[in-house]
Amino acid sequence: EISLGLVGSEMCIRDSLNALLEALLHPVFSSGMNISMDVSIGIVKCPVQADSAETLFRRAWLALEQACHSRSHIQYYHTDLDKSYLRRLLIIAELESVFKGRDSEFSLFYQPKVNLDTGLVEAAEALIRWHNPVLGHVFPDEFISLAEQTGLLPKISFWVINQAIRDLVVFREKGISISVSVNVSAQDITDTTLLEYAVNLLKANELEPSQLCFELTESQLLMDPDLAISRLCEFRKHGFRVSVDDFGTGYSSLAYLKRLPIDELKIDKSFVLQLDTQPDDQSIVQTILALAKRFHLSVVAEGVEVPTSLLMLQQWGCQWVQGY
What is the dihedral sign for C-alpha 178, 183, 189, 192? Predict the structure, then answer.
């Protein structure tokens, strides 16, 4: 991290920063390799927006953090960033309290997965929801990443697996034959205690491992492909199904796909929500279906919301669909 003090008109400073950004983003050739850098710039106006060193560094960090997620790579500080920061702190505090005896605030919702060969709902994806007395409804997009940063994600994963298995018992008692998918992280699959926990809990409830499917995203698998392959082989040995979530949004590669011990690809909803009107999306989906067939993998299309898209997927041989 580099701190700079710039003096001049706002336009002059903006031009200087854009020139600096362009220079830093330009690849550097060294030792026979092109090295590219990822550059982000956070800006705080002094003393208008910061009249102390503590305030300056905190607000500069907030602007820099936001810049990391911005296409322009440059972010000026504004008061909403402080509000967002305080909300994140509150979410972390409340999340920690949940695991001190308030886990009843969590619940699982089940999104149906329809088998297009039978037309029946034969599987479902477990989606965690959190209703907090202070924050109200907090969506997973907001609290899952914070749980990962604070080391609380494994506790959430254990809770989800426990609740999903308890719900499978209820489904069985009601005569509903179904399998359930749960979302896990790369950190989860490297935790040997999680696999052992799932195996023992299923046995205790006289359920088959095939009734539980573990979903991971492409990006998580690519953090350490060799380790992921090794660990997923263990999951498969115990009879669990493994699915690659959000397929097509990461660095899809035949090189790693042919090595992964997986059973299923889930086509990301970004390619499916407008499938009926977007020729490019149609080409991508057909390519993924052909790829999956080549590797003997089943396919789930996420984000199927209109009959025309459903009909297309049926005609192309997609096995499973779920909505958004």
Answer: negative
pTM of this structure? 0.79
The two structure tokens encoding residue 114: 């329809």
* Residues near 248 by beta carbon (within 8 Å), at least 6 away in sequence: 267, 268, 270, 271, 284, 288
Task: Please give the residue that has the higher pLDDT: either 39 or 140.
Answer: 140
> What is the C-alpha to C-alpha distance for residues 48 and 218, in angstroms, rounded to an integer?
44
Q: How many alpha carbons lie under 13 Å from residue 161 in its C-beta half-sphere? A: 26
Count of helix runs (H) and strand runs (E) in the chain: 12, 13
* Among 267, 293, 294, CA closest to 281: 267
State how far the Cα of 244 lies from the Cα of 265, in Å rounded to an integer: 5
Q: How far is the C-alpha of 177 from the C-alpha of 313, rounded, in Å?
A: 24
pLDDT at res. 51: 82
Sign of the alpha-carbon torsion through 81, 87, 90, 95: negative
pLDDT of 161 reads 97
Q: Kindly compute the dihedral angle of the four CA atoms of residues 148, 150, 152, 157, in this order, to the nearest 10 degrees.
A: 0
